[in-house]
User: Fold this.
Amino acid sequence: MDLSSLDLFLVVLYLVGIAALGIWVGRGAESGKDLFLAGRSLPWWAVGTSLVVTDIGAKDMVGLADDGYRFGLVMANFDLIGCIFPVLIAAFVFMPFLWLAGVYTIPEYLGLRYNQSVRYSFAIIWILFMVGTLGVVFVSAGTMFQSLMGWDFMTAVLLTAVLVGAYTCFGGLKAVVFTDFVSCIVLIVGATLMCVIGLNEVGGWTVLRERIAALPGTEYHFQLVRPSTDPDYPWPAVLLGLGFVLGPAYWIGNQAIVQRTFGTKSQAEARASYVFCAAIKVVFPFLLVVPGLIALALFHEQLGDGRAETWKSGSVLPMIVQLLPTGVLGIVLGAFFAGIMSNLDSYVNSASTMCVTDIYQPLINPQASDRHLLWVGRLTMVLLLVLGVMVAPLIHGYFGSVFEAFQKFLSFFQGPLLALLLLGMLSSRVTGWGGLAGLIIGVGSAVILAWLGWITLWVAWWSFVAALLGTLAISMLTRPYDKQRLEGLVCWLPPKSSRPEL
Assistant:
């Protein structure tokens, strides 16, 4: 596809502008606290928009367009059920508590509540997940560049890694959050323009429904709730696996998400950032899924059956953007770049935080100075980007869509994570040995169920149940911690007055 001079100018303007903004905003990072928590100086409105684009980025623009084409409106539930209500629960119940606990990471809290084995185990799991997520985002970038501009897949991946690494490694969380604020605005505008122009090309919503209804295998494409016998998204699995496990675990225990709230000025601002995020997210479920339906109506002959072995991941969104006129195309491509950069910078920063605070500092160099941790964090970010580039080709060749890959990765450990967080925060009876047993049983169950071919949502639900029961059973057989040891770690026990402020 040949881009006009205006489109190229808008894309280059966005890329250069966002990189310059990130470097300028983050120029004062002088310590590990500045790099990882922005000195706890972030305003709620910036954190709220950063939460939105940390969750919704390039993987969602590409992946939900693919899955909207394949499965229809049921994919909107990943925001309607899996986001908005869990965000509000997290805002008023969990985030203020975690903020007052004075921790850098979720594994750090689990280590304080259970034991260091649980901390290190979850830190390693999260780091591996985030490397996989970086690979997913790189696949999104590579497929778009390859389809629209004819670039080599790996060339596009490498250029994306260099650009994002430039300001993320330099400015840390502060640079990430303020560039995400701009990216959120661009993403909303771009996604809206794509839907409006695409629907106009089809002939409106009514014509869209008529065209899709005439195609085979599309009887449920306009239903948010599918029958319990549906092989892909039966409503019990959506309710239990997504609504009760994946959604809450993502918004309560995802390091890339909660690290932003740890960087706010107060727990009130942490809560406000989540509420603001929930308000913005109301518009996104359909903005990201409708392009897939538009492509199904217009390009089903070219794209083919989304379930066939010949299906090519990442093929839907490039078809849609070619409908856009000059100028608008540049804005939408800018929105796509916004999604890429916001996803990458968020996960790189958060994974680096866990590498340094949960692995390097406690196990390798406990006496490291804050300045030393700053440079270790920056070097770790570079290493994580390199690993993400290396796994991108593997992900590209295996999964049907990048969104499918992301949800598959989450399902291996989100159930056990939620079980340990809920039990740890709500009960003083669960023990360190119980938490470790629940982790092993839950993750082991998820691996076995996935190997047996269970769908992702059922894997998430039953691994949660297994971890919950395993933690409770072993806790009943082992001695609980003294109440004094759990002060500030269980929600109904007041925090220790001597707990250090980060």
